[in-house]
Design brief:
The protein has 992 residues and is an alpha/beta fold. An eight-stranded parallel β-barrel has the order 1-2-3-9-13-14-16-17, surrounded by five helices. A six-stranded antiparallel β-sheet has the order 18-27-28-33-30-31. Strands 36-35-37-43-40-41 form a six-stranded antiparallel β-sheet, with no helix packed on it. Helix 3 packs parallel to helix 4, helix 10 crosses helix 14 and helix 12 runs parallel beside helix 13. The protein is globular.
């Protein structure tokens, strides 16, 4: 956000303007232009903006009365935005490393978090991180009296500090514990194959089959049990599917004999494994085998063990938990329960057993299916097996939803808590799973392709829209291998990307429980290093305040979308099987996750939809209506397969006037095995009739190429879609969302994710009435904007910046002041600097971080040109603060308004004649020069005219390079990437 001062607007009457407000107006007169020196490349949003002359503050730094003393404006939404509730503040996943807990340390860490803008914690017991120095502190056992007492300390301390608490149920992920027995443990049916040529008789060891079929989970459990489930023989090649021949065997047999007829055959051994995977990073007491999520009695016993032991002991602490959390469903391919075959027959109407040898595969890491020796299926045989595989997939999804997810939410609610769940993975419908939880959660990573958010965010957010939920939480800034390399600027950009995908609340990943006595950098578990020992921690609160206001605004408004998008999930599951979301092994089609981005980057908005949502929608008036959502346009992305009931509902929508866009393909078949030939015919006939009878409302467009922005621009032109904000320029780096307030405000959030490029875009808000304002999420202030002559607004988005544009019925308030021009011929400073590098040492006392540099070495270079500190042999391991100094002639700033640092890798601060000009933790590092600096006498510095100007620039780096190859920091080295992170001032440094 551009940091622009704002003030309460439209007081009831001028004569009754409160004294504080009058004082604020006076302060604004002196603040005005100088406020822009604190902005990351702040610029006038509209070329037509004007402002009365305003005196500038010395050094570009002014103070205003804090928001706490300002009166309420009478605008409930703005007051919430300006002073958000705690629930809107970012939360953190609080890693309780090894449950090595101490009451004083718990309270100390709560104090640190509260002081730095963190509003909530997710208590997350986790295994002690490998390689850490545990100082001899013993681990407490999950649900032991000692562990429960530490939970009480945390809950009571959080309540006293106004901090909200969630807690993960169990430890690590997925749920499990050493106490699970038998079928309570997760189960999987896996397959081994042997190619046999007859006629012959072979004798095979059962142990060999069990070994060959064994799944290869990323986190196996040593105590797994197994049994041979079935042994079948089928021809090696089939174009018509036939039931395989069952080979009889005794459950206790050590070997089996197989009589092979003449020809080539495939022997398929299906083996049932119980307790095949362990809890990932489980702490003592909640490690061991994973729970069988397909088996309701096991789920209830596990959950009730927690509630029976913990909840009575914390009932006196109010508030207690807000929600109970279920992390990633990384079930490593779990697909079975004791009654799965019977349950399948109830739900699908036929026996799945004869099809299992053709559809079950061996399970690899994270449940990815691996090919083995299996029958070669072609023609009808391949189609029939694929349909049975689809039925198997959706049955798994239904069972785990009914027997775990719904049971879990009901259990949470029965105890007065909300369920918060990440409902995606091989076992869940990526959208519909989130319909069944109170707080659906997605995740956004530091590095995943060109964007931070993963492939599930839009699914999860869309599900929340259908059920009217205003909280979409996000495991945010997740990081597994460059924990110390992430910059605060990246945190902002990635967080903004989360919000564009539909997220309204951040759960940062994460904050490590780590006593101060632990050697630097402390105990570290996954996640970005949100910690008081981080170099950029002093600036973290600035981001937290920005994020809090943005979250408050999004949580108290309704997202707008009038386009629904459906993925070809039935085709994906039929052809390839379910994917391991949020990181699918493949996208089908490969561009499918870029479609929504193309829509938003062209000034429109969409939600995802599903067959169930469509089937239950109302189509009156040519709109798809489900719950509070309604859409005028439906886009099917290369969908070929859908249920006849879905096709019929789409037909009703189109015949009522709705717009249907078919991307590249037309639906012509139905999923599943039962009555599929008749259903295929029905689906094809429905769409043939639509294309014939409703040609004006049905459009067939080509598939998306490499440029999803240009592709959807062409789709809009071809189909007559009108964006609600028409942009004269589009970019894959700039996107937007639209929100609506209950009082009629129309709200737009724009974000530029580039760290290098500035975007100037003229925007016409074609469906919006009212007066445009800019709301600043960093300061909690707002300004009236003056549109261009044609009614558009000029959006100036420097690197990494974002803007909130609000249309209101009121117009009385301060205008966004014009920004002084940058000199068209910038003057570069000499590339000769005195460079001082002050190494971080990591010392800290209590909540005081001033000792971080105490005892660290200092390195000085004189008259050095700018260079990448990470690439220089002498400084490759540097982390800390770099000071760049030089002396400028007294006349150097004459006719110039700004100091532009050029490219910066880190957080910058600038002093001119020992007067601080400001600081930038993201975006464009450009500083407003004091008005009288041109005379060589900086205000307040006491210099005489004509005296040379002393310039000092400080760049604070990340920690990654310090740990990258440093054997003195084994923990840091494990979590820092091996690739150096660029740090320092690169320039060119110019006066503009």
């Amino acid at each position: 956000m551009t940091r622009s001062p704002s003030a309460p607007t439209h007081p009831t009457s001028p004569s009754k303007t409160p004294r504080a407000l009058k004082g604020l107006k006076t302060a604004l007169a002196t603040f005005a232009l100088a406020a822009f020196s604190a902005a990351a490349g702040a610029t006038a949003l509209s070329a037509g903006n004007t402002a009365a002359a305003a005196s500038e503050c010395a050094g570009g730094v002014c103070s205003l009365a804090p928001d706490a003393v300002l009166p309420a404006t009478g605008d409930a939404l703005f007051d919430t935005f300006r002073a958000p509730p705690v629930s809107a503040k970012p939360f953190v996943r609080w890693w309780w490393n090894g449950d090595k807990l101490d009451a004083k340390e718990i309270l100390r860490e709560l104090d640190v978090m509260r002081a730095n803008g963190i509003g909530g914690v997710e208590i997350n017991p986790i295994a002690f991180p490998r390689g850490g120095d545990d100082l001899g502190i013993p681990s407490l056992t999950w649900l032991s009296p000692e562990w429960i007492e530490m939970v009480r300390v945390a809950l009571k301390g959080a309540a006293e500090r106004g901090i909200v608490c969630d807690m993960i149920v169990g430890s690590g992920w997925p749920f499990g514990t050493e106490t699970l027995q038998g079928a309570e443990r997760s189960q999987i049916l896996s397959r081994a194959g042997r190619k046999l040529r007859g006629p012959t008789t072979v004798e095979i060891k059962v142990a060999d089959l069990v070994k060959d079929a064994a799944p290869r989970p990323g986190h196996g459990y040593d105590g797994r049990t197994s049994r041979l489930y079935s042994l079948t023989l089928a021809p090696a090649e089939l174009d018509k599917l036939v039931p395989p021949q069952n080979i009889a065997f005794s459950p206790s047999a050590k070997t089996v004999k197989v009589n092979v007829p003449e020809g080539d055959f495939i022997l398929s051994a299906l083996v049932e494994y119980t307790g095949f995977m362990s809890v990932i990073n489980g702490a003592p007491g909640a490690a061991g085998p994973v729970l069988n999520h397909y088996y309701e009695p096991a789920a209830l016993r596990f959950l009730n063990r927690l509630s029976d032991n913990l909840f009575p002991k914390i009932k006196d602490i109010k508030p207690s938990f807000r929600g109970l959390f279920c992390d990633s469903m990384e079930l490593e391919g779990s697909n079975w329960s004791p009654d799965f075959a019977e349950e399948f027959k109830k739900r699908r109407g036929y026996d799945i057993t004869p099809y299992l040898p053709y559809i079950i595969k061996k399970s690899g890491h994270m449940g990815h299916r691996t090919s083995g020796i299996e029958c070669k299926l072609t023609g009808d045989a391949k189609d029939e097996a694929a349909r049975a595989n689809y039925d198997f997939t959706i049955t798994c999804m239904e069972i785990i939803t009914d027997r775990f997810l719904k049971v879990y939410t009901k259990w949470c609610n029965a105890h007065g808590y909300k369920s918060r769940v990440q409902t995606y993975g091989n076992e869940f419908h990526p959208l519909e799973g989130s319909l069944n939880v109170d707080i659906p959660e997605c995740e956004t990573w530091v590095a995943h392709g060109p964007w931070g958010d993963t492939m599930v965010n839009k699914f999860v957010a869309s599900a929340a829209r259908y059920t009217g939920k205003n909280i979409v939480s996000c495991e945010e800034i997740t990081n597994t291998n460059r924990v110390f390399n992430t910059t605060l600027e990246q945190v902002k950009i990635i967080g903004d990307e989360s919000n564009l995908s539909g997220v309204t609340h951040s759960i940062l990943h994460g904050y490590n429980y780590s006593p101060l006595a632990v050697p630097f950098p402390g105990w570290v578990r996954y996640g970005t290093f949100f910690n008081e020992r981080n170099t950029w921690w002093p600036w973290f609160k600035k981001w937290a305040e920005y994020k809090t206001r943005l979250s408050a605004l999004l949580q108290n408004t309704t997202p707008f979308a009038d386009i629904a998008v459906m993925h070809p999930l039935a085709d994906l599951w039929t052809i390839h099987g379910p994917q391991r979301d949020p990181f699918p092994r493949l996208a089908y089609p490969k561009y499918v996750h870029r479609v929504w981005r193309g829509i938003h980057m062209n000034g429109a908005a969409c939600d995802y939809t599903s067959e169930r949502i469509l089937q239950d929608s109302d189509t009156a008036g040519g709109e798809l209506k489900y719950g509070p959502r309604k859409y005028k346009t439906l886009i099917l992305v290369e969908v070929e397969t859908m249920a006849p009931a879905t096709a019929e509902k789409i037909a009703a929508f189109v015949r009522a006037g709705g717009k249907l866009i078919l991307v590249a393909k037309t639906p012509h078949k139905a999923p599943g095995l039962v009555d599929y030939k008749q259903n295929n015919t029905r689906v094809a006939a429905i769409f043939d009739a639509l294309k014939r009878d409703c040609a004006k409302n049905v459009f067939i467009v080509p598939a998306c190429g490499d440029d999803h922005v240009a592709w959807f621009a062409n789709v809009m032109r071809a189909t007559g879609i009108e964006p609600y904000v028409a942009l004269d320029k589009t970019s894959p780096e700039v996107s937007q969302i639209r929100q609506r307030a209950a009082d009629g405000k129309d709200i737009f959030f724009f974000s530029n994710k580039s760290t290098a490029n500035r975007h100037l875009i003229n925007a016409r808000f074609t469906q919006t009435k009212g007066i445009p304002w800019e709301w600043d999420a960093e300061t909690g202030r707002r300004f009236v904007l003056t549109p261009n002559a044609d009614g558009s607004l000029l959006l100036d988005l420097p690197p990494a910046t974002s803007k909130i544009i609000v249309f209101d019925k009121h117009a009385n308030g301060p205008k966004l002041p014009a920004r002084p021009a940058e000199n068209p011929t910038p003057a570069p400073l000499p590339d000769k600097w005195q460079i001082t590098l002050k190494y971080i040492n990591g010392k800290i006392t209590g909540t005081d971080i001033s000792g971080l540099y105490e005892g660290g070495k200092t390195l000085r270079r004189h008259a050095s040109p700018l260079f990448d500190i990470s690439r220089d042999k002498e400084t490759a391991d540097f982390a800390g603060a770099v000071f760049y100094e030089q002396t400028l002639p007294a006349t150097a700033t004459a006719g110039k308004n700004y100091l532009d640092l050029g490219r910066v890798a880190g957080i910058s601060e600038v002093w001119l004649d020992d007067k601080k000009l400001g600081e930038h933790w993201y975006g464009r590092h450009i500083y407003r020069l004091p008005a009288n600096a041109t005379a060589g006498a900086t205000a307040g510095a006491g210099n005489t005219a004509g005296k040379p100007l002393k310039l000092k620039i400080k760049i604070t780096t990340t920690l990654g390079n310090l740990f990258r190859n440093n054997p003195d920091y084994p923990v840091g080295r494990r979590w820092a990437g091996r690739t150096p992170t660029p740090v320092g001032l690169f320039g060119p440094v110019t006066l503009r």
